[in-house]
Amino acid sequence: MHYIVLHLRYRLFLALNFLSVKTYKHIFFDLDHTLWDFDKSSEETVYELIEHYQLHINTPYTHIEFFNTFRKVNSDLWQLYNVGKTTKDLIRTERFKLIFESLNIPLTLLPKSIGDEYLASCPLKPNLIEYASDILEYLSKKYCLHILTNGFDDVQFLKLKHASINHYFDCIITSESTGKTKPHKKIFEFALTSAKTKRDECIMIGDNISTDIEGACNAGIDSVFYNPLGLKKEHKATYEIRHLKELKSLL
What we know:
The chain is an alpha/beta fold. 52% of the residues lie in helices and 12% in strands.
């Protein structure tokens, strides 16, 4: 009798858990650092510009020192943009000026067109995060896929095209086209309307706790925190993964 009771309780437990599992229909992906390898693409582009302008010869800095400074300056600017404290134009016009100032390089050595050349080249890089192509192919057979990014229209569409993944996505929603940046609730509401879906049918996948995860949480949407380095960070994501291939066991 005791065994029968335990067995019935176990069956009830499984049934309740099965009923509580959400059936997702739509997946929203962040783009940079989640699908498109921003670090690799920007590093390649910065190295090419350094070689072209011989900055490693005309200044006391190596390629890696230039790129590490680029990465910090760019990250700081994007954090400001995400909270509405800077603009698209300022990021584009001031980025390399701030890099030179950070390295104490005279601005007279700053090539006038280097910012434009970076923007013309970087989005054309086809570099993707490991397993991105495979997981998109897998998920596209089961779900409607969308992009939800704080990036700018002109470069984000180029990245998707040249990485050959644009055909996987039904809706491509940018902060520029909506007038709101993640984590603002309105960009997520706009995404739901664009995809013609509801909160409980969606899940957001991204690498940024402040924008992707907090934004999804504030909008009542489940989320997956993509944490490739396994950093110990507190977050409110529904799931956490280190490799995109782990999505096959989650979704």
